[in-house]
Design a protein that fits this description.
With about 100 residues, the chain is mainly alpha-helical. The chain has two domains: about 60 residues, Orthogonal Bundle (Arc Repressor Mutant, subunit A); about 25 residues, no CATH class. Helices cover about 50% and strands about 5% of the residues. It is built from five helices and two strands. The chain has a two-stranded antiparallel sheet with strand order 1-2. A hairpin with a 6-residue loop joins strand 1 and strand 2. Helix 2 crosses helix 3. The longest helix has 13 residues. The mean pLDDT is about 85.
Length: about 100
């Protein structure tokens, strides 16, 4: 499991993604191990492989997990009026969770 997280952390810093061989060298892991872990991460939706370059990149699934955790967390920050009018106002495109603000 540690090695899978090491791959995710390396991919988070890599632009424009990394090839399996680059990750193997960077993390000092056997190429077969990196390939196996990348296949599992890809299967679960945490990484994607560019069809043209064969380079791997993280997806937004980790961010989604963080937002889901935050959504059920007891940590609540008071929304600002800007948030209430911009994010949650009538006709606003909701891309971020924004709590209701009493008027």
């Amino acid at each position: 499991m540690d090695k899978a997280f090491e791959i995710c952390e390396a991919l988070a810093d890599a632009r424009p993604g990394s090839a399996c061989s680059e990750l193997s060298r960077t993390l000092r892991l056997p190429p077969a191990t990196v390939h196996r872990l990348l296949a599992g991460l890809r299967r679960r939706g945490y990484v994607r492989q560019d069809e043209e370059t064969a380079r791997y990149n993280l997806t937004l699934k980790m961010l989604d997990l963080g937002f889901r955790l935050l959504g059920r967390s007891e940590i609540r920050l008071p929304p600002t009026r800007w948030c209430a009018s911009t994010c949650c106002g009538p006709g606003a495109a909701r891309s971020l969770p924004c709590p209701r603000v009493p008027r």
